[in-house]
Amino acid sequence: MDKFAHIGIFALLALLAAWGLDRAFPHWPRSRALLLALLLTVAYGASDELHQRSVPGRTPDVMDVAADGLGAGVAVAGFGLWRRRLEARTR
């Protein structure tokens, strides 16, 4: 159940990052914004796991980072497809 929470939370974080970067840098190729959103989200998840090393009662888990990456990847891919469809419809 813990991994599903990681997937959902990091999917939302990646979706917001992708949307924000896409809006903030409209002159960038969309693939650059999406890749940066994915990398930033996974880096945040990895840094959170590293931080848990110093928190009593918590342990870092590589599988949590994998779940974070899975959620982020699905969200970023979905956002990219949605934007492509939206643009194709307005042409």
What are the salient characteristics of this protein?
elongated, 3 helices, single chain, mainly alpha, 91 residues
What's the domain count? 1
What do the pLDDT scores average to?
96
Instruction: Report the biggest beta sheet as strand number plus sense, adding barrel if it closes.
Output: none
- Specify the number of helices: 3
Q: How would the global form be characterised?
A: elongated
- The Rg value, from CA coordinates, equals 15 Å
Strand percentage, roughly? under 5%
Q: Helices and strands: which structural class?
A: mainly alpha
What does it look like?
The structure is a single chain. Helix content is 81%, strand content 0%. The protein has one domain. The protein has three helices and no strands. With 91 residues, the protein is mainly α.
Gist?
By secondary structure, the protein is mainly α.
List the helices and strands and how they pair.
Layout: H1 2-24, H2 30-51, H3 62-90
